[in-house]
Amino acid sequence: MSGFVPPPYPYERLEAVRELARRHNDGPIECSIGTPIDAPPQIVLDELAHARGVRGYPPSFGSPQFRESCASWLERRLGVPIEADEIAACIGTKEFVASLAGYLHLRSPERDTVLYPAISYPTYAMGATLAGLRSVPVRLVDGRLDLESIDPSDVARALVLWSNSPSNPTGYLDDLEAVATWGRKHGVLVASDECYAEFTWTTTPQTILRWGLHGVLAVHSISKRSNLAGIRAGFYAGDPELVRYLRLVRQHAGLMVPGPVQSAVALAYQDDEHVDQQRARYLNRLTLLSRALEGYGVSAPVPEGSFYLWCHREGTDGWALASELAEVAGLVTSPGEFYGSDSANFVRVAVVQPDERLAVAANRLDEAR
Q: Half-sphere exposure (CA, 13 Å, Cβ side) for 264?
């Protein structure tokens, strides 16, 4: 009997790297997964404690309060006025990324292909695999999608083109206006993963919705901006016809953000002060580790966005570099192979540990120079 055999989850392959980091007296400094560790807003925790809406089934597409709060945030922080009916909730954006292709294929069975950045978060390609569809990586040039490199035969079969800006893992910003224009020209939906939008260092936060709603979806998450990865909530917004379709099909699938979580997330999206404080923390951490790694001989520039350092050293394989950083500094990082074959010589460092732990790693790197 044969069939689909799920590959090992990438971060479960890091045991040998973690073992090297454990040899340090104070244990590993875990920077492989982008899991926030800083405190979420107290108003959100208080709202969760009230457990409003726990008794009844919550609206699958989001309560009016939830969607209105998301709409207000989009206009206030990203400069896009949008109606609450053009927004719907999802159970964290990873679930949405992994399931979108299958739902789109039901609507357009003549198309069977997912286009995604060649260096990217692995769930874009896995979403196609889980739906029994094709996934085709799109070449990147200076961190941006090389849209002209896409084969016309793949364009004709494409259900969706994924964009991710700021990028996980590279931190580059894409030209979202160009991506939206390409999608409309070719009749291909563009899904723009923007969960790091407020952690942009070289410009103001961007969204593809600035260039119109037709033919595009923007996907946002509460996980990173508010240190709430554990409550699993986000939203998608954009093309009204597509939002209506996805709202209904996802309702049939029973996909619902819990009622108390919807109430808490609505409050989180109304508060910007905690995000500004978190921005300052991440930028300080990026700067600290960037300097230490550069001093050690590893290229690790502060990115255009996100809270990741995308690092490499000429002539060194990503797994070898990850092992070296674990042995020398206790840092557990992600080999670039996790994000595509084009990045096998890189490692990703998520600056999600407390300042004092990252300072320990930086001091070790300085001492090892």
A: 30
